[in-house]
User: Which sequence fits this backbone?
């Protein structure tokens, strides 16, 4: 039987949308048993719609978005507005290591499932609460979606083109918050292993994103400079950008970091006359005249296919790669060669390609073991096998719509 890094760890998961479920996805890929607590009365909206594509799912078990961020998990359906459901959760927490939730601050406390209550049930429990700006302070009740995290962190302001509005970055922000949550949980598990003590982790999603732009804060603190949006430009590398190629909406990304790479780049292009222009003789000159340089490079790339440019430049030792649309990613030879995707069989969706674990671990490999659960699929396992309820008791809970 395979061993996984988090074998034996059980997570009670109250997360929904994207940032929270992405965190528990990573934990589930590492082998933890993740029990996602749901309710048909208040579905995770990714079961029915995507914020990007709208309501495209036929029923709660046919969502490709939900499947992608809930692999390996189990689903338990309970109506948390009913006292018997809360009692069941407390019994489940006794057998768990971690509770994670991303509801608005105060919701879990009002349900009777706040940290202080759960610590009485399980003294060494680890609880992580992820919200837009944390559970304290005047902004604690701000809505918790990626554009909020992005704007309040400052990341949106520095992302995008100089002449355009700030970019919200959307899902990319959620996944970074989720990754930060996993880091915190793993640190807490190690701390508990060493000390026997649990933790209450209050995670501000906006602060988690602010941590990724420390250089902007340092520059302001030390030099009183406010970082502005600069598109694809880099502070030291030039050329550094995304250039048009043959065909509709085909692009290639190119980055030149040293003088040797610049000379190799020029040679790969056939050393056209403009590469010897005095404006481009050194890095500073190329930086100061980067708009003109980018235009000249675009006039060359537009004559070639994206993979053709990639091959020419990579063979010369210059970093270049096609800028891939979503439908092109799974066909890219680099992606295929690195086994980014796994194929799974979903009972409602059929065979699906899903993104596999982002790590390669030799002794305890992470892996996709099963698709996302059908809603309530593991009720019998959790209530009967894990909590030891008799079938008659489970049937009564179903009849009373506590299990829903």
Assistant:
């Amino acid at each position: 039987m395979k061993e996984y890094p988090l074998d034996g760890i059980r997570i009670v998961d109250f997360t929904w949308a994207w940032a929270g479920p992405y965190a528990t996805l990573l934990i589930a890929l590492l082998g933890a048993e993740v029990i996602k607590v749901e309710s048909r009365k208040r579905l995770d909206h990714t079961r029915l719609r995507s914020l990007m594509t709208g309501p495209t799912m036929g029923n709660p078990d046919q969502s490709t978005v939900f499947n992608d961020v809930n692999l390996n998990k189990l689903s338990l359906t309970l109506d948390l507005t009913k006292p018997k459901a809360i009692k069941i959760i407390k019994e489940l927490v006794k057998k768990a290591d971690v509770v994670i939730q991303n509801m608005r601050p105060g919701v879990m406390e009002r349900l009777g499932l706040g940290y202080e209550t759960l610590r009485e049930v399980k003294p060494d429990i680890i609880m992580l609460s992820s919200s837009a700006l944390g559970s304290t302070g005047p902004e604690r009740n701000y809505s918790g979606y990626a554009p909020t995290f992005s704007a309040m962190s400052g990341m949106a302001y520095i992302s995008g083109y100089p002449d355009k509005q700030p970019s919200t970055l959307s899902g990319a922000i959620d996944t970074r918050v989720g990754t930060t949550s996993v880091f915190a949980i793993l640190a807490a598990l190690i701390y508990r292993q060493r000390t026997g003590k649990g933790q209450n982790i209050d995670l501000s999603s906006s602060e988690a994103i602010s941590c990724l732009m420390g250089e902007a804060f340092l520059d302001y603190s030390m030099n009183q400079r406010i970082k502005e949006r600069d598109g694809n430009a880099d502070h030291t590398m030039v050329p550094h950008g995304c250039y048009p190629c043959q065909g509709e909406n085909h692009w290639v990304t190119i980055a030149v970091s040293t003088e040797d790479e610049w000379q190799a780049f020029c040679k790969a292009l056939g050393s056209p006359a403009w590469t010897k222009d005095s404006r481009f003789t050194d890095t500073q000159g190329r930086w100061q005249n980067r708009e003109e340089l980018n235009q000249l490079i675009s006039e060359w790339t537009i004559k070639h296919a994206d993979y053709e440019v990639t091959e020419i430049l990579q063979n010369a030792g210059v970093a270049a790669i096609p800028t891939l649309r979503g439908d092109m990613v799974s066909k890219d030879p680099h992606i295929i060669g690195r086994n980014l995707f796994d194929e799974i069989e979903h009972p409602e969706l059929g065979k699906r390609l899903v993104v596999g674990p982002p790590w390669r671990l030799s002794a305890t490999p992470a892996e996709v073991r099963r698709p996302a659960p059908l809603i309530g699929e593991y009720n019998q396992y959790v209530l009967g096998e894990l909590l030891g309820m008799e079938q008659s008791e489970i049937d009564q809970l179903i009849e009373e719509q506590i299990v829903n």
